[in-house]
């Protein structure tokens, strides 16, 4: 991460060496606040012993070049066991080894510690100051009551995720033949603990990349304008702004009425359930390299926080790859 100057985001935060040193009360407050935020959000990593530079409050920092004179820790200055004690002694309920682990890394003769934190499916975790936190705009911020209730519902509610591929066996690499359409197969998988009897999958297909009939089992919601954010440069931290893009918008309800004989509830921890297939029309120039298509998606279900993301189809010579491009998506404005 340091070599490629990986920027901070919702799953990564750099901490200076003094975050684990000095006053024990202040140290417990800050560590438990960040651990609580990651567990109550989507998990992530805290990297201790690394300085970062921030462009603004709404843009995550990038690590400064590692300097062993002022970064990292000496052997014995602090240990993994001490960091584990700080986490478990200041976070309620006490998190177990299934929710976090402390990794010790050697760098230029110094130690750097990574606290690897999982997303909590056991309910909300409270920091030492009696508050509950979440990750927002690269920071740990207090949660509203409804957000705390939402995290508590994870223990009994569903947690749906979108699965995708060029085939109905979810292969994410394919060979492109000139002039052919690109099929994108989509499915839903429940990785939570509760049953999802109903769900709603919304799909936005870049208008110039789509033609023909609506995907099976979907409702055509016509053209919508979707607001996208161009990526943040990890070099100069510049942001080139937002743009509104016309997408063909479709609704795919996962209900008995909509699915008919093909309906089954989305049971927890089973194989993905097939949803639909979309055919994209690639650009006319077959020699084009880079992104050939995008699909915006939103996923909702009772007792579950809505999810959204951006799928990208990337062409490298004759090879196609399909993957999430989450860092390009800021919001969906309909």
Question: Can you give keywords for this protein?
Answer:
334 residues; mainly beta; Methyltransferase, Cobalt-precorrin-4 Transmethylase, Domain 2; Immunoglobulin-like; 12% helix
Describe this structure in words.
The chain has 334 residues and is mainly β. 12% of the residues lie in helices and 38% in strands. The protein has four helices and 18 strands. It has a seven-stranded antiparallel sheet. About 2% of the residues have low confidence.
Distance between the termini: 36 Å
What's the SSE pattern?
EHEEEHEEEEHEEEEEEHEEEE
Overall helicity:
10-25%
- As residue ranges, the low-confidence spans are 232-239
In CATH terms, the superfamily of the largest domain is Immunoglobulins
The gross shape turns out to be: globular
Structural class category: mainly beta
Give me the CATH architecture of the largest domain, please: Sandwich
Strand content: 35-45%
Number of continuous helical runs: 4
Radius of gyration: 22 Å
Average the pLDDT over all residues and give the rounded result: 84
- Name of the level-1 CATH class of the largest domain: Mainly Beta
CATH fold-level label of the largest domain: Immunoglobulin-like
**Strands across the major sheet, in which order?**
10-18-17-16-12-14-13
Sheet having the most strands: 7 strands, antiparallel
The count of domains is 2
Q: Count every beta strand, where a strand is a DSSP E run of 2 or more residues.
A: 18
């Amino acid at each position: 991460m340091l070599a490629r100057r990986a920027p901070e985001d919702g799953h990564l935060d750099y901490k200076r060496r003094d975050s684990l040193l000095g006053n024990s009360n202040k140290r417990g407050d800050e560590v438990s606040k960040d651990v609580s935020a990651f567990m109550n959000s989507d998990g992530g990593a805290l990297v201790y012993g690394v300085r970062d530079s921030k462009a603004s409050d709404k843009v995550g920092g990038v690590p400064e070049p590692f300097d062993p004179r002022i970064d990292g820790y000496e052997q014995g200055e602090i240990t993994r066991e001490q960091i584990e004690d700080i986490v478990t002694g200041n976070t309620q309920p006490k998190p177990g080894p299934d929710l976090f682990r402390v990794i010790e890394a050697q760098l230029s003769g110094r130690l750097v510690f990574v606290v690897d934190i999982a997303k909590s499916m056991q309910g909300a975790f409270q920091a030492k100051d009696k508050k509950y936190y979440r990750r927002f705009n690269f920071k740990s911020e207090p949660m509203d009551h409804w957000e705390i209730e939402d995290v508590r519902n994870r223990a009994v509610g569903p947690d749906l995720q979108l699965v995708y591929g060029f085939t109905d066996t979810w292969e994410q690499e394919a060979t492109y033949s000139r002039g052919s359409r690109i099929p994108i197969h989509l499915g839903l998988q429940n990785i939570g603990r509760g049953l999802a009897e109903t769900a709603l999958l919304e799909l936005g297909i870049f208008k110039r990349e789509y033609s023909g009939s609506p995907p099976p089992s979907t409702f055509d919601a016509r053209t919508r304008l979707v607001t996208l954010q161009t990526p943040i440069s990890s070099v100069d931290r510049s942001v080139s702004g937002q743009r509104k893009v016309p997408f063909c918008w479709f609704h795919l309800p996962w209900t008995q009425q909509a699915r008919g004989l093909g309906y089954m509830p989305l049971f927890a921890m089973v194989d993905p359930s097939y949803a639909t297939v979309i055919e994209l029309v690639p650009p006319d120039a077959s020699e084009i390299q880079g992104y050939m298509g995008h699909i915006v998606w939103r996923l909702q279900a009772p007792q579950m926080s809505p999810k959204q993301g951006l799928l990208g189809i990337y062409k490298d010579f004759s090879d196609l790859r399909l993957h999430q491009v989450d860092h390009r998506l800021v919001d969906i404005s309909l």
